[in-house]
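can u do me a favor
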């Protein structure tokens, strides 16, 4: 223990002064030592100091042993100066609203990473002509970030970087991180490299998940059973794709809402900026995924507005599930979930148990956690693990006479 302590901060005595709020002066003097002791161990400053000592030693050892190009930024390192003088003035009193897009690609196709760097909730200020570092976690289980390149943000705040052929990544799910050199702001996304004929299930967020009108409001309620339906498809091994016509400036808000309600992890795609016809943008995006990445959509969920989108993609009415009241006009074009997600989940479970084995299909093992919860290390990068043959037939879950309420069903597996 003493040897480890010496490697952290040596043999010197360490004293730490804590700030005493005015509220504590009203407490009895006898109670103050206990409060101060508790506040010492709960202090974020103390925790940050200890972590800096640990990470500083670990990073040095890792670089010496693995010779990896890790992220050079640390809390103690100074920020780089802005390349443009007016950038400092532009960014005064505004908060960062950066985002890095989730990307789906193939091994033989282009692997292009895209990010946009804006400030203010409505993208009022653009980061222009400044450096942005691009990192990828090429071995997700290791937790090591590898620096690929440094790009300049263009006049619209966008950074697009195509991975060169010599560095192309194989099948797997790879975290992306883009860091603004001058401000040290960072945002993350995912690069998913898929095999051909990858089977996916598409969920439109607007109108199908949220029971109220707008995610921009105070926390809209989630439709009962929606989380369990998504988790059912994820457990079967399908890639989950969330799509919305909302502009990408709302990414942080939407992802936070999905995280708060423990929606299973998946790829999220937004419209680029404000568009007049979001349904057309959805159609174009999904069609490009089918043509360029060769994905296969097994089922698609949405609201009444999404029926035209899924019909344009050539999906059959048995593959389209619409939340809402049945309509005679569309009754032959989709399946209405008039009884809610809970009844639909029971139908899915019964159908997948009773359905006979089908021809081999390509699926992918992804992390099975939720957006807001840590999952086990299910990021599998090896080809043998990612490409596998599965049948739809699953083992029968235990039958319970009384179904659990929605709150109990929506708990992740780790909590159960």
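np, heres the sequence
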């Amino acid at each position: 223990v003493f040897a480890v302590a010496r490697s952290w901060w040596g043999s010197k005595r360490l004293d730490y002064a804590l700030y005493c709020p005015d509220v504590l002066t009203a407490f009895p003097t006898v109670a103050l030592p206990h409060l101060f002791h508790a506040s010492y161990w709960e202090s974020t400053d103390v925790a940050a100091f200890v972590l800096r000592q640990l990470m500083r030693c670990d990073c040095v050892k890792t670089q010496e042993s693995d010779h990896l190009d890790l992220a050079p930024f640390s809390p103690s390192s100074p920020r780089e100066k802005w390349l443009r003088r007016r950038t400092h003035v532009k960014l005064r009193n505004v908060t960062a609203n950066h985002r890095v897009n989730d990307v789906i690609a193939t091994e033989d196709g282009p692997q292009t990473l895209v990010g946009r760097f804006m400030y203010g909730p409505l993208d009022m200020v653009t980061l222009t002509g400044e450096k942005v570092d691009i990192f990828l976690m090429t071995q997700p289980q290791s937790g090591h970030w590898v620096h690929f390149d440094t790009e300049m943000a263009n006049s619209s705040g966008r950074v697009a970087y195509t991975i060169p052929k010599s560095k192309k990544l194989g099948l797997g799910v790879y975290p992306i991180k883009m860091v603004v050199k001058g401000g040290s702001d960072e945002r993350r996304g995912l690069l998913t490299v898929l095999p051909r004929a990858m089977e996916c299930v598409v969920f439109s967020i607007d109108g199908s998940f949220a029971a109220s009108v707008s995610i921009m409001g105070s926390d809209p309620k989630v439709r009962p059973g929606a989380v369990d339906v998504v988790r059912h498809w994820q457990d079967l091994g399908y890639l989950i794709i969330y799509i919305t016509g909302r502009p990408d400036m709302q990414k942080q808000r939407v992802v936070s809402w999905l995280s708060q309600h423990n929606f299973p992890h998946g790829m999220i795609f937004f419209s680029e900026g404000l568009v007049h016809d979001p349904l057309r943008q959805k159609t174009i995006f999904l069609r490009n995924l089918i043509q360029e990445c060769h994905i296969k959509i097994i089922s698609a969920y949405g609201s009444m507005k999404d029926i035209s989108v899924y019909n344009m993609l050539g999906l059959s009415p048995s593959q389209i599930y619409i939340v809402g009241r049945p309509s005679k006009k569309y009754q032959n074009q989709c399946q209405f979930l008039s009884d809610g997600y809970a009844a639909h989940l029971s139908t899915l479970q019964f159908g997948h148990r009773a359905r006979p084995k089908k021809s081999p299909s390509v699926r992918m093992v992804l992390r099975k956690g939720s957006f807001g919860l840590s999952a086990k290390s299910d990021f599998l990068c090896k080809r043998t693990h990612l490409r596998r043959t599965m049948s739809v037939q699953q083992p029968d879950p235990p039958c319970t006479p009384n179904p659990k309420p929605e709150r109990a069903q929506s708990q992740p597996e780790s909590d159960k």
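The first strand starts at residue 99 and ends at 100. hope that helps!!
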